[in-house]
Amino acid sequence: MAEGHVDNRLDSWRTGILVLVVALVAGFVTARWFGAGDDGPEPVSVSRPLMGTIVTVTVPGADDPSVRAEAAEHVAAALDEMARVDSLFSWRLPPPVSMPRSEQLAQRRDLLEMAVAVQRASGGAFDPRVLPLVQAWGFDGGEPTVPADTVLARLVAGLREAGLPRDAVELESRPDAIHFGAWAKGHAVDRALAVLERRGQTAALVNAGGEVRGYGRRWTVGVQHPRLPGALIARLEPGEMAVATSGDYEQYFEQDGVRYHHLLDPRTGRPARGCRSVTVLARTCARADALATAAFVLGPDAGMDLIGSLANVEALIIDADGDRHDSSGLAAYLSRD
Predict the structure, then answer these.
(1) What is the pLDDT of residues 118-156, one digit of tens each?
(2) Which domains does the chain have, with CATH numbers?
(3) Which residues contact 277 (CB under 8 A, 6 or more apart)?
(4) Closest CA to 335 of 46, 25, 16
(5) Distance from first CA to last CA of the chain, Å, rounded?
(6) Confidence at residue 176, expressed as pLDDT on a 0 to 100 scale
């Protein structure tokens, strides 16, 4: 019988990897970001279970009760938008009735195009068609188990033969053709921030477990140590860059003394073994999300080569031996405090 930590939700790939709001430094980040020690009003911060994790949205507070109430409405609208994204990109849920079909197609098109770009850049280490492998390992809510070699060989061959949807319209008719778990949550963070900006919020921070992005203020994010619960391996000050982490330590099971995690190499059908965690900074959370998965599967050397080939992208990789690798521009984002 396999034992371990397996989330029963398909989309919950990285719950709690970035220690930001939900774990030890819960108050630390929002306090630092909005000015710890100030006598100003408390920020408005609301948490809600979404996409298999706890999502927290924070905006500046105000002394005026009506202004605080309006800020709370804006936060609720951002969380509602994330719920709509969850419904749109989950193959288990019906499309959101409150989202026009034209908007659904536009979002599907954008994420499909980004997935194809990351797949090509990574040489296939990132593959959005990986759902059959996820299901075979039981990481979609099934019983976790190690599939037979023959099963994996058949599924890997099937991935090579399966074509990607040509466009968003085809994807609409084949909702299980793409597994959006590797970057839909990041996209939801981006959409939530867009809602807050449209509503006039001068600053905001959205944390969706392993995917974090903010704007308008200085903020700090702690990156969890992959083998020491509660410990940090780095503190980052990403500014308006998004941060996403892929790790082997929050969704896994053990069988016959071997740990099997959910970050599968589509070229072999098995968990990638070169890294313990990969943290990526990029302009959007969706891109950081997908690139973190790709770099994890590639391993520390090829993963860093991928990061180095891309503009406005940085990474911190902990390899299988526990050694740390920083991209050439990461130092600019490391906290000095």
Answers:
(1) 999 999 999 988 989 999 999 887 789 999 999 999 999
(2) 3-91+182-333 (3.10.520.10)
(3) 17, 223, 224, 226, 233, 245, 246, 247, 248, 249, 296, 317, 318
(4) 25
(5) 46
(6) 63
